[in-house]
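#onboarding

Welcome to the new folks! Below is a worked example of what a typical request in this channel looks like: someone posts a single protein sequence, and someone else replies with the predicted structure as tokens. Don't worry about understanding the tokens yet, we'll cover that in week two.

Example request:
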Amino acid sequence: MLSQLSRSAFISMSLCLVAGIPAYSMGGGGELVVVANQEPQSMQAQVTYKEVNGVGLRNVIENLTRIDPETNEVLPMLATSWEQVEPTRWHFTLREGVNFHDGSPMDGEAVAVSINWLWSDENNYSVREMMGPQITAEAVDESTVAVITAAPDPLLPRRIYLGGVTSGKQIIEDPAGHDVHPIGTGPYVFEEWEKGQYWTATANPDWWGNTAEDTYGEIFYDSIRVVWRPEPIVRSAMVESGEAHIAMFLTKEECERFDSSDGIKCIVKGSDTFLQFRLDYHGAHPLLADTRFRQAIFTGIDWEGIRQNLMGLGEPLSGQMLPSVATGFDDEISQYPYDPAGAKAIVDELKASGEEIPSLHISTRLGSTPRNGEMVEAIGAMLAFVGIPNTVAVEEPGIFNPRATTKPNPERAYAWLHVQANSLMDYGATFGAHYSCGGIVSVFCDPDFESRVAVAASLVGQERHEALKALVREGHESYVVAPVGLLQRAYGVPDNFDWSFGIDHRVVAVNMRSD
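Example response:
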């Protein structure tokens, strides 16, 4: 019988031969190979706001600011400094002598074009879920861009870190190309995207970071190849066989196996990404607007049991979507209690009053986090036990994403289990994404609540914290979102692999080395 290592190597090498991807030896330089959990949704610059949607894309596309992985401080990147010149106007001084990969200059005009394209209401890219007040930009001069917000936004330098800066020339001359061929300023130049298989990039000899004192890394690998496999065991096997450097999102059990094996190890780190259960609200099936029915759903599910036994690598969240370090955290809120008897009593009472209990469709996206399929199955079984009919599904992005970004209708009764990130650690961003009438993924719409969020988001310091905290409690009592846990992300790598990254888990090659 084959050993575990041999069996894994056989699976991995067989898959590579099918895909036409050669095995790579470890060592200095050469090609860095990353095995992601899913294919990029697109190559748009906006995808860089969330690493899971475009793994490794920040090697090609950079940002005006960056976040220090150790201190979480906002630092210069393509902008060397910034200043709030008016309550709603910030001036960013751009790094001199930087060109996009197409040779066009990274100047005030180009950056303004990129910002306006990325954050526009017309394009309605998903990065807008983290926007706050509407963002627009205009060139001040060649070395300065003004970023204007519709209302004061004290988080702007940190928020602007989420938006990738891409070639203004490409946006003007070939906007369709922006979806499939990223043109940035980064340490690697995009080469090709072979859909269904991989995308590649090569080292940029003209990268500004090669000579700048305030660079954020050093080019070590000659090229990057990102492949994707939805099955965790296959991702693991590719590192075990020496065919890849990084296998993303291992389960707790795989991580333990890696750490007990020779030549490979597991890197585990806390993240800014939480796992949430979101239930349809405004505009959906009428019963979903009934707080009693929502309470039955939220208390009919054993959230702590799911976190401990299925999510595995993660930390508890106290009934809210961010940890205690976040602005607006309320330390008097706790996780929704598991009360199946109480939930069933509510359902029985609703039935007795003549209400027809709708069948709830619960979905999760393929590959988004380990064991998410098992989690929705468990949720479905628990809800069926208290008398709530349901269907569950693990869906491809092409099915999951359109439904998740479509507003409810009166016939719809839908819930998702999905990962969401908030590197700002501020509830102002969370409310913009999940509790606003115009939010890309929001199913909650209360103009009064939204106006109070806007006021809170314009404040700073303790005033901001207290105003957001009151809204956190109100959202909790409305049963809009059930937070499952704050994820730890695990990666399988060779023993000789070093990688420095922050809580946003950016896959950036200039922060990696292998002996």
